[in-house]
Amino acid sequence: MNYEKRDSLGMYRPFKDDQSGPGPRLMGADTLIGNSVYNHQDESLGDIKEIMLDMRSGQVSYAVLEFGGFLGMGTKLFAVPWQALTLDTIEKRFVLKINKERLDDAPGFEKDNWPDMADPIWAKSIHDYYGTRAHDDPFDQDLTDTTGAIDNDLTTPRSIDGDLVDPNRTTDSDVDDLPADPSRPKDYKGPSGI
């Protein structure tokens, strides 16, 4: 079942002037639980069982994905970083860039043995596996992803401490927009030398 069918409050109904309502940029959490998750090979990876919120920041941290097994037996739960999921508004489902074998090998847990998701060491291992960064990291996502788990769009401006930073900047003056890193020499221009 997809989020439109689960919408009991009418939040996804068409609005006047061809507006589409709150979705897809702002969605009701309850309507997302139960949504299917597919990969880019159009293989079903399961469905979202829960959405985990960071109560300190107010941001979504993880979607708990149920995957594997047969007829509900032998399934495993996976905490997938929210940043690793993409909403497919045409098919009304989520997409996770991972093949089934890699997901099967991902760190997961049983329904009666949840991990301590507030543990920073556990969180780092999950984000490292999926090639993402935690939302409290100063960068939105890991631009050096080697897992193939996320799509590294290097053309979209990113937010660093609330300021938009264009990854395609070409002048030295653009570097002034970046927050200072006290561990770097004053004349450090970044990895690309700009």
Which tags fit this structure?
4 helices, 194 residues, two-stranded antiparallel ribbon, SH3 type barrels, 8 strands, 6-stranded mixed β-sheet, 2 domains, single chain, alpha+beta
Task: Provide the low-confidence segments as ranges.
Answer: 138-161, 165-178
* CATH topology (fold) name of the largest domain: SH3 type barrels
The total count of helices amounts to 4
Biggest sheet overview: 6 strands, mixed
H/E element order = HEEEEEEHHEEH
How much of the sequence lies in strands comes to: 15-25%
CATH superfamily of the largest domain: PRC-barrel domain
Write a brief caption for the model:
The protein is an alpha+beta fold and 194 residues long.
